[in-house]
Design goal:
332 residues; 14 strands; alpha+beta; 31% helix; five-stranded mixed sheet; binds aspartic acid; 10 helices; Glutamine Phosphoribosylpyrophosphate, subunit 1, domain 1
Length: 332
């Protein structure tokens, strides 16, 4: 994946570093250095670097008159459909039984939300999560029930295990002794994405195949409203990546939104949430491979991003420019 190339070339010495800048359309300005104050217009913020077409899809959906939900859904559908992305949707690495199981959620800024967990055979779990939100009185559907619901709504049952993912799984089986995986940079990378229109309204989506080689049935933070994603247009939104168990334990995304509600900046709020994780569960801090991270945005278009261990990147589209930025990290 591209992010590894970026990590090699980036200076990850500390504070957020801009490591790639791409103009989305002709005429938009490419700026060097830290992101300037928001000029208005859509802002799209997401975990990692899944390519500039991801924020572009969100911006285009809004430009065509689509809703913020259309914007976040169409953006995260790109990595969901990409067989080269081994941590989201089609092509995702399987659980330790060899099954690809997907977790997704979607939320607008007015408390409307939907989620699917432990869903198999459906390439776009985010679209199923959206239907749960729009067509049912529920928030979350799981496993076979989620699959049945998807099939009833016209989704196609597909094999999501690519040849490459199967080969990686077989390789893992040789040496793993079937031990549940420890999360590290090689076996995760969720896309959590927040989009805001020019007026401060916001929506978010989060979608993943979860930790590679996980115990069958394991669900992480990503599809859990308040853990992997939380949005409130009165305040802002947050979304997470990394070890889902750690994020769930502090209701990470909700915590960040509440900290912003109480006056913290998005950056301060991300930092406090990470400090909370290691304060309550110090064993995470002792683990060299531990990575949990958040990105957050308030309704003034101010953004924050931080991970525990070094290595988180985020993609920010603001004022017509997309940047891939190395996030600050706590464990210095
Ligand atoms: N948060 C995800 C999970 O625990 C992993 C990731 O970010 O890739 O399932």
């Amino acid at each position: 994946m591209k992010r590894r190339t970026f990590i090699k070339s980036a200076s990850l010495a500390g504070a957020a570093t801009v490591i790639g800048t791409k103009a989305l359309s002709e005429g938009s300005k490419v700026l060097a250095g830290a992101a300037p104050a928001w000029q208005g217009g859509p802002v799209v913020l997401s975990t990692w670097d899944f390519g500039q077409e991801v924020p572009q899809a969100a911006v285009e959906a809004l430009a065509k008159g689509g809703s913020l939900i259309d914007a976040v859904e169409s953006a995260v559908m790109i990595p969901e459909a990409d067989p080269k992305v081994t941590s989201v949707g089609y092509g995702g690495y399987p659980d330790r039984e060899g099954h690809v199981t997907l977790d997704s959620c979607i939320m607008d800024g007015n408390g409307n939300c939907g989620s699917v967990v432990f869903l198999e055979h459906i390439k776009h779990p985010i679209s199923v999560a959206r239907l749960v939100m729009e067509k049912t009185q529920h928030v979350m559907l799981a496993g076979d029930g989620a699959l049945q619901f998807a099939l009833e709504h016209g989704f196609k049952k597909e094999n999501l295990l690519t040849k490459e993912a199967e080969a990686a799984y077989k390789e893992w089986l040789k040496t793993s002794k079937y031990m549940p995986a420890v999360i590290d940079k090689s076996n995760h990378d969720t896309i959590g994405l927040l989009a805001m229109d020019g007026k401060g309204a916001m929506a978010g989506a989060c979608t993943t195949s979860g930790m590679a080689w996980k115990i069958r049935g394991r669900v992480g933070d990503s599809p859990i409203i308040g853990a992997g994603l939380y949005v409130d247009s009165d305040v802002g939104g947050a979304t997470a990546t990394g070890l889902g168990e750690a994020v769930i334990k502090v209701a990470g995304s909700f915590l960040i939104v509440e900290l912003m509600r109480n006056g913290k900046s998005p950056q301060e709020a991300c930092k406090i949430a990470l400090e909370r994780i290691v304060h309550k569960q110090p064993h995470y801090a002792a683990d060299k491979g531990f990575l949990a991270g958040f990105v957050a945005m308030n309704k003034d278009g101010e953004v924050g991003a931080m991970s525990y261990g070094r290595g988180l990147q985020y993609t920010l589209h603001k004022d017509g420019v997309t940047r891939v930025i190395a996030a600050d990290f706590l464990a210095k």
